[in-house]
Amino acid sequence: MKVGVVVAEWNTSITSSLLNGAVKFLKDSGVKPDNIFVHHVPGSFELTLGAQWLAEQKKCDAVIALGCVIQGETKHFDFICAAVANGITQVGLKYNKPVVFGVLTTNTLQQAKDRSGGKHGNKGTEAAATALKMALLQKSI
Predict the structure, then answer these.
(1) Which of 31, 46, 128, 134 lies most in the core, judged by the most C-beta atoms within 10 Å?
(2) Which residues are catalytic?
(3) Element (H or E) spanning 95, and its range?
(4) For position 70, which CATH number holds?
(5) Per residue in 77-116, pLDDT tens?
(6) What Rg, from alpha-carbon coordinates, does the chain have?
(7) By residue range, what is the domain housing residue 99?
(8) How many helices (H) and strands (E) in the chain?
């Protein structure tokens, strides 16, 4: 199995925890370190294009997009979250492979911490599990 991971640099303390959880899960599941391709993009909005670049590579069986958008005082949060969710979905459909939405969309920094290795687990780990399950499903059909 070969997995591409695209990670937003914005909110890096959170996204690096998501990445660590995803990579650990992939390795623990038997994915060779040389078959995990990690690339960084500036922010969550850029995840869609980064995911597309990884998805178009035939070497990737699945792509995981990891980011974190925290609610602020403006509607920016709504626009970014909607655009990224829609974009990630479209990339998966376009390239007919699993492209997993591992983007935290939280109201507070504490909620993000709780979901990136805190009391609510690590959503990066969950995204990696989803990517492997979907890639295996695709191979079995």
Answers:
(1) 128
(2) 76
(3) helix 76-95
(4) 3.40.50.960
(5) 889 999 999 999 999 999 999 999 999 999 999 999 999 9
(6) 14
(7) 36-140
(8) 5, 6
